[in-house]
Amino acid sequence: MNISVIGTGYVGLVTGAGLADFGNDVICVDVDVRKIEALKNGEIPIYEPGLDTLVSKNVNEGRLRFTTDLPEAIRAARAIFIAVGTPPKPDGSADLRYVEEVAHSIAQHMNGPKLVITKSTVPIGTGRLIERIITSHGKEHSVSVVSNPEFLREGSAIEDFLEPDRVVIGASDKQSVELMKEIYAPLHSLEIPFVVTNVESSELIKYASNGFLAVKITFINEIAVVCERVGADVQDVARGMGLDSRIGPKFLQAGPGFGGSCFPKDTSAMADISRRHGYEFEIMEAVLRVNDAIKLRMVDKIAEAVGGELRGKTIAILGLAFKPETDDMRDSPTIPIINGLQARGASVRAYDPQAIENAKMFFKDITYCDDAYSTAEGADALVLATEWNEFRALNFDRIRKALRAPVLVDLRNVYDPHRMRTLGFAYTSVGRAEDAQK
Ligand code: UGA
Q1: How many degrees, rounded to 5, is the angle at CA 152 between CA 383 and CA 209?
Q2: Containing domain of residue 161, as a range?
Q3: Are 173 and 234 within one domain?
Q4: What is the 3-state secondary structure (H, E, C) of 369-382?
Q5: How far is the CA of 380 from the centre of ligand 1 (A)?
């Protein structure tokens, strides 16, 4: 099918490349001339494992191209995916400006029946709003608006696109559902479940999924606090809980709080949507409050590890991105943590395998280093903030010798406490008991 994907951010680019890989003819559109020029030259603007290969393969096979010409892309497509940004407004609600602009452009340039699909995470009712905008232009061609939320994790987005747990389709007519099934045809043969519902349910499935995962993470983060007070071990508690198939083991990894471009934005939008419909979604509100508090707790944890006083201390931070395998700094827990350390008088040295360039937009007065060992040089503590694989098997003798004091604060519970203590570190992690039996 001829498809256009509007917006070549993270979601748009992965969607465009993935749909082309399914055999569709895809045009990816963006207003950003520099980005489109770069993509035409085979440069991928974000770090996402496997994306460059998927893009170049489909470009070479003639199924994927890039343009800034929106009218042409609208005319060429039977199906138009909207994947533009929906950034949060100061009150937590999603800003639909770009989505609305695209809807107006579709109405202006449509030259036949169009299937319009929202991939961007949009508040409930946006599908109907797009339909109203397009039909208000009074064109004779038919339009159907479908919701098809994305469930891509940064760092494993390609796998999530090509082999998803489910495909959610929110539509109001049978023909649209059939067209969507055609677009996603290869997933049928993999027996991936398709959840077909109305537009509102589909839009809510996205928020409910991200909201629930945020609850799960926040729950285990609070359990970690309790563990520290009662002498329990959060890893063991999570395992003991997670083996119950009703609970499941995933997203029970305690840490410095969730971040990224999705969970913080979507939990806050979920609370806002609910409020606007006259209901205080108390769990969502609590998750937002607790998640902020958890991040600040990490500053206290680091302070305690260096003896209580941060003034005059140098703290070495390993990892800046909100999670490994991405260069994304948006809402990374390291932002409030580093700001908190600096506000209390500490100097910060930091290293991240991919995110340093993006980090420079968020921090002042940090010394950026080239690897874990140079980061540790002369520091009063080494803090593991993002669990990149390259930090898992460091040469800890070298690290200990580079540090001014052998203090290791593991905010991702990656290292074995017993081993770290044997290696001579004063070791702190999140919610783990010293005497947990392995
Ligand atoms: C998340 C969802 O997992 C995707 O399904 C969804 O499509 C995406 O948002 C989106 O809405 O676009 P992502 O933000 O890329 O994906 O990353 P996750 O792997 O979900 O991690 C989010 C945050 O939670 C990270 O800060 C991570 O460190 C934290 N986390 C995750 C934990 O602290 N503990 C866990 O057990 C899992």
Answers
A1: 90
A2: 2-197
A3: no
A4: CCCHHHHHCCCCEE
A5: 31
Each of the 438 residues of the chain gets a pLDDT tens digit; together they read 999 999 999 999 999 999 999 999 999 999 999 999 999 999 999 989 999 999 999 999 999 999 999 999 999 999 999 999 988 888 878 899 999 999 999 999 999 999 999 998 899 999 999 999 999 998 889 999 999 999 999 999 999 999 999 999 999 999 999 999 999 999 988 889 999 999 999 999 999 999 999 999 999 999 999 999 999 999 999 999 999 999 999 999 999 999 999 999 999 999 999 999 999 999 999 999 999 999 999 999 999 999 999 999 999 999 999 999 999 999 999 999 999 999 999 999 999 999 999 999 999 999 999 999 999 999 999 999 999 999 999 999 999 999 999 999 999 999 999 999 999 999 999 999 877 766
Q: Which of 217, 327, 384 to mutate to test the pocket of ligand 1 (most atoms within 8 A of CB)?
A: 217
Q: Are residues 163 and 215 in the same domain?
A: no
The CATH number of the domain holding residue 44 is 3.40.50.720
Closest C-alpha among 390, 355, 357 to residue 373: 390
Of 252, 263, 290, 325, the one to substitute when testing ligand 1's pocket (max ligand atoms within 8 A of C-beta) is 263
Which residue is associated with the tokens 């983060």?
Answer: 221
Which of 164, 197, 230 corresponds to the end of one domain?
A: 197
Q: Are residues 235 and 355 in the same domain?
A: yes
Q: C-alpha angle with apex 425: 422 to 427, nearest 5 degrees? A: 105
- Nearest protein Cα to ligand 1, atom 20: 153
Domain stop point among 141, 168, 197: 197
